[in-house]
Amino acid sequence: MDDDLAGTLALTRRRLLVGSAVLAAGWAAGCGSGDSGAEPTTTTGAAPDLNGDPFTLGVASGDPLTDAVVIWTRLAPEPLALDGLGGMPDRPVEVSWEVATDPDFTDIAFDGTASAEPAYAHSVHVDVTGLQAGTEYHYRFRVGAATSPAGRTRTLPDGSPDRFGLAVVNCQWYETGSYAAYRHLQDEDVDLVLHLGDYIYEFAGTGEGERSTLPTNDVTTLSDYRLRYASYKLDADLSAAHARLPFMLTWDDHEVANNYMGDQLPGDASAGAGQTRKAVAYQAWWEHLPVRVGPPQGSELVVYQHVDLGDLARLYLLDERQYSDVPPCRGSDTAEGDFGDCAERSAERTRLGPDQEDWFAEAIASSTATWDLVGNPVVLGGIDGGNDADGPAYYLDTWDGFPTARGRLIDELAKADNPVVLTGDYHAGMVIDVHQRPFDAGSPLVAPEFMAPPISSPLFAADITERTPQVQQQLNGHGYLTVDVERERLTVAFRVLDDVSDPDSAIQTAATYEVVAGSPKAASR
Ligand code: FE
Ligand code: CA
Q1: Which residues pair with 313 in a beta bridge?
Q2: How much distance in Å is there from the Cα of 461 to the middle of ligand 1?
Q3: Which CATH number does the domain 4-154 belong to among 3.40.50.300, 3.40.50.150, 2.60.40.380, 3.30.160.20?
Q4: Contact 141, 147 (CB under 8 A)
Q5: Using an 8 Å Cβ cutoff, are 55 and 46 in contact?
Q6: Best CA proximity match to 148, nearest among 44, 39, 231, 60
């Protein structure tokens, strides 16, 4: 067993206790102090002797519910300290927090304290409860004399909202482009940001140039992952987007390792290597993001979930890596990039794992919402990247490598009134008609699928529309989707940067599609 895993496992029991304490602090404060009249926060205990501003990594909020939201920060006066510990002392530090109804913090609705623990890189997750539905709040943290930047957040609506605004983002390789998209995202009229994964990339940082990250080796240890998240979170546009809007996040492969599946790391099939890597990667993911789940237990963390936006929509986030079988054909000459075709492609294998598959089937069957919006990290509707000479070739770590499991998922979608699939991973924008049998245009149309362009990762611009008739449009650009959910229609805008290499780049609406309730066809507008 390697030292990192031993350390991680040793910490697991403590982590449970600390996590509970932090969440309980939020819960108690929320229930105890009521809507108004709470005492202003005073910091208790000695002011910590920190070597600089502890709030360099900003603040964030996430996983909003109708009456709760998670607020996050991580103390790191030296965020790029090579040990990944942020320049923090090896002891717990008390952090006070406030949630106000106004941006000037004159009306403090809730406050409390949380303990930032060295075992979790001094991250803080407070689940603030007792909030009003569909309401904007403002929050901040304090340590000693230092006050964090203020964040804004919003709870989910209840009842029958007329409208809900979503943004869909993914694939933000830091070295390969600016985060200009995150600058523009702050100005969008959206209530929530869905992140479909590849929040970090684990490749060795270049160590040179304006957009380089640490560490300069491949990211494999807990220290490495912490340092990589810190590198990303120092970006002013990403930090500001988190401070401006609540996020809900799932992950794809690069939060752990390129093309990992289940417990298998491509390039390292040694026993336990995948679990060891997942344990540290999942822990660092949890430490740096505003999520309600966690901390992880060893190499396990349940991140799939659904929430309701009143009766307007039920919103699902899927995990398509943690429980997955290994894709077909891997180990053959197509293992590079998992691209190709082989007889075993059609064999039974799981993508979601049985528990998640059951959960999804029950959740969508019980939904009474107008729309069912499924955050699905990798493309569902099928892409054939082959050519006439060599025949079809599929990206086998997408659903194309899991056709039997895909068939079951599509069957569940078909039971919903208005299913819509929101996808990432592929490094292009796309509009795809999801047929009951992908590539069979004669089979019933089940749902529209909208693939969000990458924030900054390299484009995958090869034209696949020739052999993939279900793709209505392919857009090669960087940016994000906005999804305007209304009772009668859903409107998706592909927001695309002029030039991802320019942090000051303008953004345009490259395409707009509309889905009318009652029809599974996306129509260009
Ligand atoms: Fe990616
Ligand atoms: Ca990916």
Answers
A1: 309, 371
A2: 13
A3: 2.60.40.380
A4: yes
A5: no
A6: 60
What average pLDDT does the segment 426-440 reach?
98
Q: List Cα–Cα distances, 414 to 87, 339, 434, 525, in angstroms.
A: 52, 28, 10, 25
Which ligand sits nearest to residue 397's alpha carbon?
A: 2
| 112 C-alpha to ligand 1 centroid (Å) | 38
Average pLDDT over residues 197-224: 94
Residue 459 Cα, ligand 1 centroid: separation in angstroms?
9
User: Top-level CATH class of 164-524?
Assistant: alpha beta
Ligand nearest to the CA of 253: 2
Q: What integer pLDDT is reported at residue 47 of this predicted model?
A: 53
What is the 170 CA–ligand 1 centroid distance (Å)?
Answer: 7
Residue from 291, 259, 296, 287 nearest 274 by CA: 259
Is residue 128 within 8 A of residue 69, CB to CB? The reply is: yes
Amino acid residing at 323: Y
Cβ-Cβ contacts under 8 Å for 5 (sequence gap 6 or more): 272, 275, 276, 279, 280
Q: What is the pLDDT of residue 10?
A: 31
For all residues of the chain together, what is the average pLDDT? 90
What's the confidence (pLDDT) of residue 446? 98
Per-residue tokens: 377? 């990290």
Asked whether the predicted pLDDT for residue 207 surpasses 90, the reply is: no
At 33, give phi and psi (nearest 5°).
-100, -5
The dihedral through the CA atoms of 339, 195, 260, 307 has a sign that is negative
Closest ligand by atom to 258 CA: 2
Tokens at 413, concatenated: 């979608």
Name 317's bridge partners: 305, 375
For residues 245-253, average pLDDT: 98
Order of strands across the sheet that contains 371-376: 305-309, 313-317, 371-376, 419-423, 445-451, 429-435, 471-475
Q: What is the pTM of this model?
A: 0.91
Beta strands at 192-195 and 247-249: parallel, antiparallel or unpaired: parallel
The domain ranges of the chain are 4-154, 164-524
For residue 171, the ligand closest to its alpha carbon is 1
pLDDT of amino acid 28: 31
Which tokens belong to 380? 């569902």
Ligand of minimum distance to the alpha carbon of 172:
1
